Amino acid sequence: MADIQGSYDELFAAVPDLLSGLLDAGDAGGAVAVFVDGQAVVDVWGGFTDGGRARPWERDTIVNVYSVTKTMTALSALVLIDRGELDPDAPVARHWPEFAAAGKENVLVRHLLSHTAGLPDWEGPVEELYDWASATARLAGQAPQWEPGTAAGYHSLTQGFLVGEVVRRITGRSVGEFFAAEVAGPLGADFHIGLGAEHDRRVALTVPPPGRDEDYAAGSRAGSPGRDATAPSAATALRLRDGNSIAWRRAQIPAASGFGNARSVALVQSLLACGGTVGGVRVLSPEGCERARRVQFEGTDRVLGMPCRYGLGYGLFGDALGWGGWGGALVWVDPGERLAMAYVTNQMREPAADNRGIELVMAAQDGLKGLRA
């Protein structure tokens, strides 16, 4: 079996065993973390950071988690809501006056967070994603595709700019700066929205699915609960080479360009599992955590073509919440069990055949049964 590094409670041994099996099956590298009551019971990694299998995956390796980044951006908005600086039922234009153009004066903040704003498609060139002012100006001028709040369509690339610009207008800081100062920093979480050059040596570049190359493009359907589509359904298609570029790494694309490891993702999202406080650090109130789970939309997503339930910034799956990223990353939070699990990988698989994250969730839940016995 492939060698796995790190540590884990023996009750959760099925988790590292499963990760080892994924590496044996051909994955380049990956990491899994399971936190219970805000403490790590699994923190393991293995494989390689490159498709050539030359550089081992290390404890501090980080990787692009694509749309798992949305949960970090949503958390930033939830912090502002918790502090009374942002009202989810307020018009977006209250904070961003230019956004009222083209019939969007009645778009509410909660519509941005629940994929119901009617702006699912990125209609500009990929290069414009790297320029915050240009990207947000484009979205401010765009007309909604449906009456906001009446339908949902996954805002794969646009949601981060929409929520992030509201954060910026309120705080005077980019969402990456706000998240670093108010969430990641206090928790000691190694997660970044906008990655500095000093971290480049630690990045595991994403490897395409077998038989594909760096022109591999994201699809428009998720395929299973929490599976990310990432690319819009309009003309612009995000290719793997874009996600692996330095420009992508440096930019703040708060729906899709976050870099971290499984440990940092699970640590941050443990806030939602533990009533807003982890390791003695309070970031949200218990009410703020519950707010994320309030159903904003339930029905068929017009972009993903599948049934979805959306809370404020998170997908809802029974009593759990979370989301997945293009290529396989997943975060899963079960507040009832005070559990947060994260899986990150640099190995893409074809979406229709990729159940790695859910299988790891099931393995973690099996370990939890023993822990609670």
Q: Could you explain how this protein is built, in words?
A:
It is a single chain. With 373 residues, the protein is α+β, with helices and mostly antiparallel strands. The chain has a single domain, classed as 3-Layer(aba) Sandwich (Beta-lactamase). Helices cover 30% and strands 17% of the residues. The chain has 11 helices and 15 strands. The strands form 4 sheets. It has a 7-stranded antiparallel beta sheet. A hairpin with a 5-residue loop joins strand 13 and strand 14. Helix 2 packs parallel to helix 5 and helix 2 packs across helix 6. It is globular.
Care to count the β-strands?
A: 15
Largest sheet: 7 strands, antiparallel
Task: Tell the overall outline.
Answer: globular
Q: Which range best describes the helical content: under 10%, 10-25%, 25-40%, 40-55%, 55-70% or over 70%?
A: 25-40%
The CATH topology is Beta-lactamase
- Kindly name the structural category: alpha+beta
The pLDDT mean sits at 94
Instruction: Using the coordinates above, name the CATH class.
Output: Alpha Beta
Strand content: 15-25%
Termini, distance in Å? 30 Å
Give the SSE string. Answer: EHEEEHHHHHEEHHEHEEHEEEEEEH
Features:
alpha+beta, 11 helices, globular
